[in-house]
Design brief:
The complex is a heterodimer of chains A (321) and B (589). Chain A is 48% helix and 18% strand. In chain A, the strands form two sheets. Chain A has a six-stranded parallel beta sheet with strand order 2-1-3-4-5-11, with helices on both faces. In chain A, strands 7-6-8-9-10-12 form a six-stranded mixed beta sheet, sandwiched between helices. Chain A is an alpha/beta fold and 321 residues long. Chain A has twelve helices and twelve strands. Chain A folds into two domains: 128 residues, Response regulator (Rossmann fold, 3-Layer(aba) Sandwich), CATH 3.40.50.2300; 131 residues, Response regulator (Rossmann fold). Chain B is built from 15 helices and 18 strands. In chain B, the strands form four sheets. A six-stranded antiparallel beta sheet of chain B has the order 3-2-1-6-5-4, sandwiched between helices. Chain B has a five-stranded antiparallel beta sheet with strand order 8-7-11-10-9. The chains are: A alpha/beta (321), B alpha+beta (589). At the A-B interface, strand 2 and helix 4 of A face helix 1 and strand 9 of B.
Chain lengths: 321, 589
């Protein structure tokens, strides 16, 4: 008996060695793979979206595949990338389409592969899938109201819009027009497509000013185009007076708003869209369902309110990053 | 082997200390090792994270370009134009310079190849080597790859570029270009290449520690880039046998610990490639191992040094036990005066005190018992002696005797004389022993008195054999027996009682016998006597026999005995056996 006890005593010496726990290693748990196909990476909006997605992915411990064509108009390339992305078999795809009108074949392929797809930032027109992004109708409405406010007494307005195939631009113009129905004294005289391009936007502005010199307000459905329009004003030595209201909050647009170049900027925070988008994707994977629409905040910024906004955003991003 | 209590205690303490120190030391060291390793792993992941980001960026640029070129209508046109005049240098150069327009110094893309399967021609983006003919596709695995193995995967392929001047390792995105008018037919295959060496210097030539090696591994486990060029193209088992396990894990990050190495890998989600680092575990924990050795030596040294105070301490603790032990030994040898010195107030002290008390009590008890016994014997003896007669009677009777003689009453004087002698024998304090001869004389005196008293004559026969007369016996040892014989020895069958008293020697003993021929006792009565019930109704009054028995016991203990033989009508024979002695003091109390 005593011998047995001695042996047990000796063995118990070795037990704690085995019991030493590994010290807080990252857990090897299931990581979701999220495929993200964006419209491009050539402006700050998309960079914000990307950072938002990366931050959320780090928190939720998800892997992200980022793909994007060179420009927002590279529809065919984006389509090829979508099919390539399907081959990789991610768990879910967040898709900001360059072509809102012809997504059916892509979505059909995705359904066949069993991969759920969510629309990010830009809605699809030909199919309804869960959407995360700005409420574009609302944005259009905010722009209309701002211009109506600035243009007391009414007058003529023009619209410079982006890639024709993209639902966000279409919706913003729709929202804008609908809201202006409440202001019969304001007339939309021209809607031109600048393909979300800076130079084209300047060109369009020039055209508009040429054709309608009395135009008092221009609504540009993206900040890039808004800056393009502003550039045109600059070229004209600011002899033309239209108020420019645009959408997106990239840094150069915010500066322009601050020093009075732009007269209204409607926010749609790319970071917030990316961040929320990723979390919605995860939720869809975990619970199997997600709301049809998850909107990010859109507010109208003016010269007075822009500083506050910048500060809040920095703090918010500071914490999140 | 006899191990002292103190040594056992010392050993026990030493063993326990050693074990617990080793245990704690080992556990702590293991934990520290793990912490060091885990921190190292985390720092490697941080480094790898930056590298894999850089790799993905380069890969994405190449991929984007490949996709763009594969859908570029302008390129498609140029290709068609050239296809119509396959051997026209102009059209080839047009294609070449178009391709060349797509990269700049910042671009990670090294070169673009365009393979036209219909005319088996490769057009490159570098101007000095614009076209190459591919005559033997089987010999050139690169071309074979083009025709059969282009893919639209997000992962680049690992290839050897043999088109350029010197064979180089590269990663490539190779995609087909379809003609717009013939969507099913491949018009050309475009290959965008990333130079492996450049990727290596961009992504893998870092190191937290120069002893770490980094590898770029493709999703199937082939080494795509490494510091040792010879390893490129080999499987990841070159790094370590079980390294392939790293790739099969679903998570982005994984760690593999083999006996000698630490393998840490981080995967790129887009390409599926992983960066794997290999660290020599021993080197990582070399410092710790030194510490371990140091601690071990320190432990042993401290243990050895601690033996000295431990020894001294155990001495002190053991001393009270030793004192107790010594006292016990003394007592065991018979020295009841030994006591244990009490020096502490703990259990040993209590033990010692208890021991001392016990010995005290034993001593007292023994004294008491001895006293008691002596007193008892003394008292008994005195009582017995005094039982018989007070002293003054002797003197009075002497007077009467002389008076009788003076008055001429000789017979009375004679009787009185006999009586006085008997009385003397009874009273005298000195000399509890008489010779047998003297004792027999007393018997005769007694008988004479009895004859006078009862006016009868008894037949007393006295035999003394040999020299038995000189030996000493307790006085008046026979008288009670003779008295009994006279009292109760009347015979129904004989007219006169016959009493025989004999004294013999038997070896070292003396036998004294008194026999009568009276009516005897029943066997039951004999029984009773032999069992100590000396009072027999009608025969023994009890006092005399018990007197004899007691005195025999007191003087001789077990060495004397008395026995009774009788049967009804056969008389009684009483035999006393006692040790023969010529020394009257020998059996005195």
């Amino acid at each position: 008996m005593r011998k047995l006890l001695t042996v047990i005593l000796l063995l118990s010496f070795f037990l704690p060695c085995g019991c030493v726990q590994s010290v807080s290693m990252p857990e090897q748990h299931e990581q979701y793979t999220v495929g993200v196909l964006l419209k491009s990476m050539n402006n700050q909006h998309w960079m914000d979206v990307r950072i938002g997605i990366q931050d959320a992915a780090r928190e939720a411990d998800a892997q992200v595949i980022f793909l994007y064509p060179e420009t927002e108009s590279a529809v065919k390339e984006q389509r090829a990338m979508f099919y390539d992305l399907l081959q990789r078999k991610p768990d879910v795809i967040l898709f900001a389409t360059c072509d809102s009108l012809n997504c059916s074949p892509l979505l059909a392929a995705a359904r066949e592969a069993g991969i759920p797809v969510m629309a990010l930032d830009t809605r699809m027109v030909d199919e309804q899938i869960p959407y995360v992004g700005a409420d574009n109708n609302y944005i259009g409405m905010l722009a209309a109201e701002q211009l109506a406010l600035l243009m007391e007494g009414g007058g003529q307005v023009a619209v410079v819009t982006g890639v024709a195939e993209q639902a966000s631009h279409i919706e913003r113009v729709d929202g804008f027009s609908k809201a202006l129905e409440d202001y019969p004294q304001i007339e939309v005289v021209s809607t031109l497509n600048a393909n979300s391009d800076f130079r084209l936007a300047a060109e369009c502005t020039k055209q508009i000013m040429g054709a309608y010199p009395e135009v008092r307000g221009i609504f540009c459905t993206s900040a890039v185009m808004g800056l393009g329009a502003l550039e045109q004003k600059r070229r004209d030595f600011y002899t033309s007076a239209p108020y420019i209201v645009a959408v997106d909050t990239q840094d150069d647009a915010l500066s322009a708003l601050k020093n009075g170049g732009l007269h209204g900027l409607i926010t749609q925070d790319g970071y917030e869209a990316g961040y929320k988008g990723l979390y919605c994707a995860i939720e869809l994977l975990e619970s199997g369902e997600i709301a049809d629409n998850t909107y990010i905040e859109s507010i109208l910024l003016t010269r007075d309110t822009v500083d506050d906004y910048i500060e809040k955003r920095q703090i918010g991003r500071g914490e999140e990053r | 082997m006899q191990i002292s209590f103190r040594t056992k205690a010392l050993l026990a303490i030493a063993v326990i200390s050693l074990f617990s120190s080793l245990l704690i030391g080992t556990v702590l060291l293991r934990r520290t090792e793990q912490i060091v390793e885990n921190n190292y792993i985390r720092s490697i992941w941080n480094t790898e994270s930056v590298s894999i980001g850089a790799f993905e960026d380069s890969a994405r640029q190449a991929y984007n370009l490949a996709v763009k070129l594969s859908l570029d209508p302008e390129l498609s046109d140029l290709i068609r134009t050239h296809g119509e005049k396959p051997y026209d240098l102009q059209s080839a150069l047009a294609v070449s310079s178009y391709l060349g327009g797509f990269y700049n110094e910042d671009s990670p893309v090294e070169v673009i190849y365009l393979y036209l399967p219909d005319i088996k021609q490769v057009i490159t983006s570098v101007d000095y080597n614009a076209t190459r003919e591919v005559f033997y596709p089987e010999q050139n695995t690169w071309a074979t790859r083009w025709e059969d193995h282009y893919s639209t995967d997000l992962a680049p392929g690992v290839v050897v570029d043999r088109i350029s001047r010197a064979p180089k390792n590269a990663l490539t995105y190779t995609r087909p270009i379809y003609a717009d008018d013939l969507p099913q037919q491949i018009q050309a295959i475009v290959s965008v290449l990333l130079d492996e060496r450049r990727l290596f210097y961009q992504c893998l030539s870092m190191g937290v520690n120069s002893s770490d090696s980094y590898y770029l591994v493709d999703p199937d486990g082939l080494i795509a880039s490494s510091a040792i060029v010879g390893e490129i193209g080999l499987t990841v088992s070159e790094i370590s046998e079980s390294a392939i396990q790293l790739l099969s894990r679903r998570g982005k990050e994984s760690v593999l610990r083999t006996r000698d190495y630490l393998l840490v890998s981080l995967r790129s989600p887009m390409t599926g490639y992983s960066i794997v680092s290999k660290t020599d575990r021993a080197g990582l924990t070399a410092l710790l191992r030194n510490q371990q050795r140091f601690i071990l030596i320190l432990l042993l040294a401290v243990l050895v040094i601690m033996l000295i105070p431990a020894y001294w301490l155990s001495q002190r603790i053991n001393r009270p036990i030793q004192l107790l032990q010594r006292a016990m030994e003394k007592v065991a040898q018979g020295d009841l005066s030994a006591r244990a010195e009490v020096v502490t107030r703990d259990e040993i002290g209590q033990l010692s005190e208890g021991f001392n008390d016990m010995i005290d009590r034993i001593e007292t008890l023994i004294e008491e018992v001895v006293d008691e016994r002596t007193q008892k014997k003394q008292a008994e003896l005195e009582a017995l002696q005094y039982q018989i007669t007070p002293h003054f009677m002797y003197n009075t009777l002497n007077s009467i005797k002389y008076a009788a003689l003076l008055q001429g009453a000789d017979s009375i004087g004679e009787q009185l004389g006999a009586f006085i002698e008997l009385l003397q024998a009874s009273i005298s304090r000195k000399g509890a022993f008489l010779t047998v001869l003297e004792e027999i004389r007393m018997v005769r005196n007694y008988v004479k008195l009895q004859e006078f008293r009862y006016m009868e004559k008894y037949d007393i026969t006295i035999k003394m054999n040999g020299d038995v007369g000189k030996f000493y016996v307790p006085r008046l040892i026979l008288q009670p027996l003779v008295e009994n014989a006279i009292m109760h020895g009347e015979s129904d069958t004989h007219a006169r009682s016959q009493i025989t008293v004999s004294a013999d020697r038997d070896g070292g003993d003396i036998l004294l016998t008194v026999q009568d021929n009276g009516k005897g006792m029943s066997s039951e009565q004999v029984e009773r006597i032999m069992h100590g019930r000396y009072k027999i109704k009608g025969y023994f009054s009890g006092i005399g026999v018990s007197n004899i028995v007691e005195r025999l016991r007191l003087h001789y203990g077990e060495r004397a005995d008395i026995c009774f033989e009788s049967a009804p009508k056969r008389g009684v024979k009483v035999t006393i056996r006692l040790p023969a002695t010529e020394n009257p003091e020998e059996y005195t109390l």
